[in-house]
Specification:
alpha/beta; 8-stranded parallel beta sheet; globular
Length: about 300
Amino acid sequence: MNIKKYQGIFPAFYACYDKDGAVSAEKTQELAKYLLNKGVQGLYVGGSSGECIYQSVEERKLVLENVMAAVGGKMTIIAHVACNNTADSQELARHAESLGVDAIASIPPIYFHLPDHAIAQYWNDISAAAPNTDFIIYNIPQLAGVALSINLLREMRKNPRVIGVKNSSMPTQDIQMWKDEGGEDFVVMNGPDEQLISGLAMGATGGIGGTYAAMPELFLKIREHFQKGEMEQARQIQNDVCRIIYKMCSGHGNLYAIMKAIIVKQGGPDCGGVRKPLANMIDSDLAIVDEAYEMIKAATAKYC
């Protein structure tokens, strides 16, 4: 397994809609190419930032097909394939493998709090549908309602396709635990954008983040300084990134709606709003978009 392809900054890909709220193949390709040109190492497609739980299986296939058409083979692509039932998740896993993605990923099933053995069966069933593709566990207990445990990870490590964890739990010590359990070549990606530097310090191989697409240059610079041992410079950028995130989260509209509007101001593609029940922006959010845009612009000029 080539761990190097899972190192670096991986924006979590946003859902791209047309004016009628349908998934836009054209805008999906535009956003993928836009992020490729920013110099990020890969994309995480079909996760929380992609509004996956509000899209149909066919829509999720359409998104991944167009990402792969635009940038497949030019960067690492991880496809999140989990649905809240095994059969649909397996269908997405088979589809992702047929397109040649580098890895598939999955949260545990949500709503019912299943025991570890049932979660392991769910993940192994998904992996079996894509037997030639790496599998990454997505640990996000604050939304999924269940947390990855050492015992569950040990059970999953019996599956040779399980090569890592996307860790979005808040305690950074979890990253150290997964690395200790998995070994030197085990992939652990930091999830919470507000603590990228902390996750890297605990041994994360890279980061997958929902706000990366709105300010990729800053996250790339954090990692660059970290790799050079320039901790104070990395800390300063991380602190400014956190302030930008707080600003973007302060609107009436959902964070993803705010960030999509910021990308338009930056000269990127117009990916539309967000899908209900997520809240779209209202007029008062335009000032927040402008403020966050200026904060990102100033930080990029200062640090990059």
